[in-house]
Specification:
Blueprint lengths: L7 E5 L1 H10 L5 E4 L6 H12 L6 E4 L3 H12 L5 E6 H6 L1 H9 L5 E6 L13 H4 L7 E4 L3 H15 L8 E6 L8 E5 L2 H8 L6 E3 L5 E3 L19 H30 L8 E4 L6 E5 L3 H14 L4 E6 L1 E3 L3 H8 L4 E6 L10 H9 L8 E6 L9 H17 L6 E3 L5
Length: 410
């Protein structure tokens, strides 16, 4: 689709792209603690505050646990709120992630994906966000700096939707994206503000029968996240699941709406298919690795191999029906995981995709490839080897080893 608004091309790394996007939709509060490789986001945003480019209240906290607590408390007063973190910081936030989603606070957070210690490693894998996949947050993953910029903007619109009201985390691969300079097309502040809109706070009925905004307000006192005993707690959690289901549709809608102003569209917003429609062999992955796989797919297609790649853009909520529809005719599938589920018989993405395909008859052979832990590079040659493994699997009519490792020494 033709771009309908003028955009400016800037040279930005992924962190800078995220900070630029976060400054555009009139964010009220940013609370954060710097941690590599997220640090540039916080530094850049603090520059915007110091230079008077934004009127955001910038809170420098003493820890990431406090940062998320501050974001939660700001959000439930009706403030539009943003933060950013990375592996150890996200782990320290763990308790407050559940509290934030349980309070239905639409906080947007960028996560610079990084390995968890020990041993200490500051480079990329997805151990941090995968460990929080059941925390009640929407999880979206960027392939490049452009998509990271776009996802932050879309994230506010998704999170604050009345039928969703859930926090959103946007993952971007540490160093591979956060510190790599790319051409990024940015929209004007005015266009972004109009697209995201003002923060519309839902109305609720109080115990006195008054209709008031659902926020902490001294004039209309109410409790947020109060104690819920066994006779009520279950219903709270079920409502969060309904909101996640609503998010499936809303993510797709926002993806389409964003195309109108930017000319950029990412599949259906949940999944992005490339040469999958007639593929015999396909790789399922997320994040920056998708670009490498796409290049190898092009090479294999020129050689007559029917290869494809399915990029998962939204891991939470997981688009199960879309995955089934995309892979129902594929004969062999490799699911790539940049994290490990120790003792679980495969990685998190593998478990989810294999589960989604369980009822297909006949269902494709599905195998798991663990790769890139601690920032280890995965080359096009190694991706090609995965596709060759899948072809041999089809010929042998058996899966063989279910969980395999890419580029492992020894």
């Amino acid at each position: 689709m033709k771009t309908v608004v003028k955009q400016e091309m800037l040279a930005l790394n992924g962190d800078e792209a995220v900070a630029y996007a976060a400054k555009q939709p009139d964010v009220d509060v940013v609370a954060a603690y710097p941690v590599t490789p997220q640090t540039i986001i916080v530094e850049k945003f603090s520059e915007y505050v110091a230079n008077g480019e934004v009127e955001t209240e910038f809170v420098c906290t003493e820890s990431e646990h406090s940062a998320m607590t501050a974001c939660l408390t700001a959000s439930v007063t009706g403030a539009r709120t943003f933060t950013a973190t990375s592996a150890p910081g996200l782990a320290l936030m763990h308790e407050m992630l559940f509290v934030t989603s349980g309070c239905r606070a639409p906080v947007v957070m960028a996560v610079a994906n990084r390995a968890l210690s020990a041993p200490l490693n500051i480079h990329c894998d997805h151990s941090d966000t995968m460990a929080e996949r059941d925390s009640g947050w929407i999880q979206l993953y960027a392939e490049n700096a452009q998509e990271a910029y776009d996802l932050i903007i879309q994230g506010f619109k998704i999170a604050e939707s009345q039928e969703v009201l859930l926090p959103v985390m946007v993952g971007l691969d540490g160093f591979t994206l956060t510190h790599t300079l790319e051409n990024v097309q940015v929209l004007s502040d005015e266009v972004v503000r109009k697209f995201v809109g003002s923060h519309q706070i839902p109305k609720v009925v109080t115990h006195e029968g008054k209709i008031v905004p659902f926020k902490l307000d001294p004039d209309n006192p109410m409790s947020m996240g109060p104690i819920a005993l066994p006779n009520y707690y279950f219903e709270f959690k079920r409502q969060q699941e309904e909101a996640m289901r609503n998010a499936l549709k809303r993510i797709s809608q926002v993806n389409e709406e964003f195309e109108v102003i930017s000319g950029r569209r990412y599949g259906n917003g949940l999944l992005e298919l490339y040469q999958v429609e007639d593929a015999d062999v396909a790789i399922v992955c997320l994040g920056s690795t998708t670009g490498t796989v796409r290049t190898v797919v092009d090479e294999l297609r020129e050689e007559g191999v029917k290869a494809g790649v399915l990029k998962i853009r939204a891991f939470r909520p997981l688009p199960v029906e879309g995955i089934v529809e995309a892979l129902k005719k594929v004969k062999a599938v490799a699911v790539m995981d940049r994290s490990m589920s120790f003792g679980g018989g495969g990685g998190a993405v593998f478990h989810e995709v294999r589960h989604a395909l369980y009822d297909l008859t006949p269902h494709p052979n599905v195998v798991n490839y663990i790769y890139g832990l601690g920032g280890r590079d995965t080359s096009p040659t190694q991706i090609r080897q995965i596709f060759e493994d899948l072809q041999r699997m089809i010929q042998a009519k058996r899966v063989g080893e279910l969980v395999r490792y890419v580029g492992l020494r020894g």
